[in-house]
């Protein structure tokens, strides 16, 4: 998908620069031509030799390197690429970009270019949260710069929170989406998938039989139409989809938080089988049999309804919100009522009675319920159902 795409990869100086080496490898595997540019600070983290060897290309480092200017001026270098990717993008380089400074090769290229630019920020969580960085981010977004990440997690500096650079494959997915010609190109879509696990104690949990197969197929079908997909999944047995950002969660509450963090999105599809209840006061020690014959009892609390919460947002609601309804009886009636109750636009209803073999199986038979009524589709593979549904989503977002 990236065959012969010319990517100018600017590596700025942060600990995440080591991930740029893997990014180069992944881009080249997909046929891209990568020309690296290193800032001076980046050279403290990765060596020019290793970057150049992996890229199989000359690297550029210095604005005043006259040989380079004779061979290729910085203006031409900045415009000869199909896409400029900055990974990692430090707080400092983001600030320079936002204010139009040009005091080294990287910042000069970014100011001189007329090519699309994508950045993968990476910095300490406090630097990321700082109003100055958030202002710069808003400016860059308004300038049309594409942003990938950052992710939440443990950081090299020992703190925890947003600021970790996206993983190389997530950046590759964003780059592929940037080049996509499909009808959903440039559209962000959130897909939830799989079951949730609600803990009883550290070793036991309440779960359901959802495999995540339909959600995975759907996420890939949307990706194939060019969408930038965020895939929020519970502990599903299905393989993980490729070419998108994946957020792994366990509980319904975590799934809601992940979805809210991933917003805004043009559409959201809630294919997850979310547990309706969580256990109140889940024990942080394993509950033991004490030999008295006394049985433990569990108290439940209702989980947040992610589909209803997002459907009923007054500010920033995705244009199209799609829910699933797994029913075992009077499927269409129940799903139609569910669409109204939750406030979503569409419901994809299916009969998960054990005799249908749908839950955990490879096929699905669905009825699509919209404001215009119910439409029953022929039973087909989950992949075929996903392709059909993705196309319908693309058509709806176009109209
Ligand atoms: O109410 P019910 O569980 O049948 O609704 C199914 C739909 O609602 C699915 O799209 C599912 O992903 C979503 N849902 C949710 N949060 C819940 C329960 C269900 O998003 N707590």
Explained architecture:
- The chain is an alpha/beta fold.
- An 8-stranded mixed beta sheet has the order 12-11-8-13-16-17-19-20, with helices on both faces.
- The protein contains 14 helices and 21 strands.
- Helix 13 (331-342) links the parallel strand 16 and strand 17 (346-351).
- The longest helix is centred in the last third of the chain and has 17 residues, at 382-398.
- It has helices at residues 17-29, 48-55, 66-71, 74-79, 91-99, 105-112, 125-129, 131-142, 168-179, 213-224, 252-262, 306-311, 331-342, 382-398; strands spanning 6-11, 33-38, 83-89, 117-121, 146-147, 151-154, 160-164, 188-193, 198-199, 205-206, 228-233, 245-248, 267-270, 277-279, 300-302, 320-327, 346-351, 363-364, 366-370, 373-376, 380-381.
- Helix 1 (17-29) runs parallel beside helix 2 (48-55), helix 1 crosses helix 9 (168-179) and helix 5 (91-99) crosses helix 8.
- The protein has 2 domains: 1-179, Rossmann fold; 183-285 and 295-399, Rossmann fold, CATH 3.40.50.
- The chain starts with 5 loop residues before the first strand and ends with a helix.
- The model has no long low-confidence stretch (mean pLDDT 92).
- 34% of the residues lie in helices and 23% in strands.
- It binds cytidine-5'-monophosphate.
- Residues 192, 252, 270, 272, 274, 276, 303, 305-307, 323-325, 338 line the site of cytidine-5'-monophosphate (C5P).
Q: Any chance you could write out the topology, listing elements then pairs?
A:
Layout: E1 6-11, H1 17-29, E2 33-38, H2 48-55, H3 66-71, H4 74-79, E3 83-89, H5 91-99, H6 105-112, E4 117-121, H7 125-129, H8 131-142, E5 146-147, E6 151-154, E7 160-164, H9 168-179, E8 188-193, E9 198-199, E10 205-206, H10 213-224, E11 228-233, E12 245-248, H11 252-262, E13 267-270, E14 277-279, E15 300-302, H12 306-311, E16 320-327, H13 331-342, E17 346-351, E18 363-364, E19 366-370, E20 373-376, E21 380-381, H14 382-398
Helix pairs in contact: 1-2, 1-9, 5-8, 10-14
């Amino acid at each position: 998908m990236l065959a012969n795409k010319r990517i100018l990869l600017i590596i700025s100086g942060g600990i995440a620069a080591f991930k740029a080496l893997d990014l180069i490898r992944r881009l080249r595997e997909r046929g891209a031509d990568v020309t690296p540019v290193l800032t001076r600070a980046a050279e403290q983290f990765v060596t020019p030799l290793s970057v150049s060897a992996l890229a199989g290309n000359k690297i550029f480092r210095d604005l005043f390197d006259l040989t380079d200017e004779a061979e290729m001026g910085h203006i031409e270098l900045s415009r000869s690429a199909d896409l400029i990717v900055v990974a990692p993008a430090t707080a400092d380089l983001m600030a320079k970009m936002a204010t139009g400074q040009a005091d080294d090769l990287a910042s000069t290229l970014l100011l001189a270019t007329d090519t699309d630019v994508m950045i993968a920020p990476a910095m300490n969580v406090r630097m990321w949260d700082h109003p100055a960085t958030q202002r710069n981010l808003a400016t860059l977004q308004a300038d049309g710069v594409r942003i990938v990440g950052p992710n939440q997690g443990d950081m090299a500096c020992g703190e925890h929170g947003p600021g970790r650079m996206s993983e190389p494959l997530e950046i590759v997915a964003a780059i592929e989406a940037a080049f996509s010609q499909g009808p959903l190109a440039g559209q962000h879509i959130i897909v939830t998938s799989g079951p949730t696990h609600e803990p009883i104690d550290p070793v036991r949990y309440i779960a359901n039989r959802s495999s995540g197969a339909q959600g995975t197929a759907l996420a890939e079908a949307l990706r194939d139409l060019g969408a930038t997909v965020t895939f929020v999944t519970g502990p599903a047995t299905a393989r993980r989809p490729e070419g998108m950002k994946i957020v792994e969660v366990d509980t319904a509450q975590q799934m809601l938080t992940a979805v809210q963090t991933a917003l805004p999105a043009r559409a959201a599809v809630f294919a997850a089988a979310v547990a309706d209840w969580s256990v109140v006061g889940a024990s942080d020690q394993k509950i033991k049999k004490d030999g008295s014959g006394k049985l433990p009892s569990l108290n439940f609390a209702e989980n947040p309804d992610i589909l209803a919460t997002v459907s009923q947002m007054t500010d920033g609601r995705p244009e199209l919100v799609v829910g699933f309804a797994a029913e075992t009886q009077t499927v269409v009636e129940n799903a139609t009522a569910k669409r109204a109750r939750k406030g979503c636009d569409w419901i994809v209803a299916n009969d998960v009675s054990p005799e249908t073999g749908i839950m955990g199986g490879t096929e699905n038979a669905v009825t699509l319920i919209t404001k215009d009524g119910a439409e029953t589709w022929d039973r087909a593979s989950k992949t075929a159902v996903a392709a059909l549904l993705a196309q319908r989503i693309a058509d709806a977002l176009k109209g």
